[in-house]
Amino acid sequence: LMAPQGEHAGLPVPEEELPHTPGGKIRIGGGSGFIVDASGLILTNKHVVHDREAEYIVTTAAEDMYPARVLARDPLNDVAILKIEAGDLPALALGNSDAIRLGQTALAVGTALGEFQNTVSSGIVSGLSRFINAMTDAEGHSERLRGLIQTDAAINPGNSGGPLVNLAGEAIGINAAVVFGAQNIGFAIPINKARRDLSELKTYGRIRRPFLGIRYILLNHLLQKRFRLPVEQGAFVLREGVPGRTAVIPNSAAHRAGIRETDIILELNHTPITEKMGIEDVLEKVTLGEEVPVKILRNGQEQTLMLVAEERTAVS
């Protein structure tokens, strides 16, 4: 990850102490990734390449360096796809994350601490379908990561974007997060999410995702008491006090379906909405253009609306 010299005077260390390239650019961060196509397609985490003003350089295991383009960032998952101009590259085979079983061996590969390239650590799959809130950049922004693989293989800072591999040598996940202050707890994005992104990119030139167009909070027992609501599960449509914004975005799929502020979405496509099964989780299994039922609670009465899933284009 490179940035033009002189634009980061606010960093806590002087520029002359930061690593420079021969061209005079400053390295301000790094991460891992892996080649999935011999033509130069690379998978990594979205948070590794979140800076849209930066230039990205890929260094291979053979120490060859290539400028990289960010082709797409998944709007729902911590996945990004990069491209380098090279050919006949060794590519890592993709496994099937739906076939993962608890207790199976997993290997985490990456550039540990941003310095130790091709570091491999071993462990097991210790959990499935986990969800966490993870910090995604230095400014403290966070993102809810869903459906994660939990592993006790060591995932260190700098490993983000590297592959989680099974004993057949197939990538079953993308290393994404580690719990600081805890030992042997790391998380990876299931590779089938990235496989879908690759297919979308190759077919449509972008990553397509359904988009409802609402602002909401997921309810629990405490929020039920706070807002004095009749239910403790669901998505409470609310602007959350954001000035100048509405709870339902005009002309969105939700607006056309008739969803209003203070509605509670109880089910989407016959799936109950809970803290562990949010709207985004359900939307990932909905086909664009599909008409799906939305069960809501409005003024104490349940009713079902019909909503047509519309595209949310990935920001690339």
TrEMBL record:
<dbReference type="Pfam" id="PF13180">
    <property type="entry name" value="PDZ_2"/>
</dbReference>
<dbReference type="InterPro" id="IPR001940">
    <property type="entry name" value="Peptidase_S1C"/>
</dbReference>
<dbReference type="GO" id="GO:0006508">
    <property type="term" value="P:proteolysis"/>
</dbReference>
<dbReference type="GO" id="GO:0004252">
    <property type="term" value="F:serine-type endopeptidase activity"/>
</dbReference>
<dbReference type="InterPro" id="IPR009003">
    <property type="entry name" value="Peptidase_S1_PA"/>
</dbReference>
<keyword id="KW-0378">Hydrolase</keyword>
<dbReference type="Pfam" id="PF13365">
    <property type="entry name" value="Trypsin_2"/>
</dbReference>
<feature type="domain" description="PDZ">
    <location>
        <begin position="210"/>
        <end position="300"/>
    </location>
</feature>
<feature type="region of interest" description="Disordered">
    <location>
        <begin position="1"/>
        <end position="24"/>
    </location>
</feature>
<dbReference type="InterPro" id="IPR001478">
    <property type="entry name" value="PDZ"/>
</dbReference>
<dbReference type="InterPro" id="IPR051201">
    <property type="entry name" value="Chloro_Bact_Ser_Proteases"/>
</dbReference>
<keyword id="KW-0645">Protease</keyword>
<protein>
    <submittedName>
        <fullName>Trypsin-like peptidase domain-containing protein</fullName>
    </submittedName>
</protein>
<dbReference type="InterPro" id="IPR036034">
    <property type="entry name" value="PDZ_sf"/>
</dbReference>
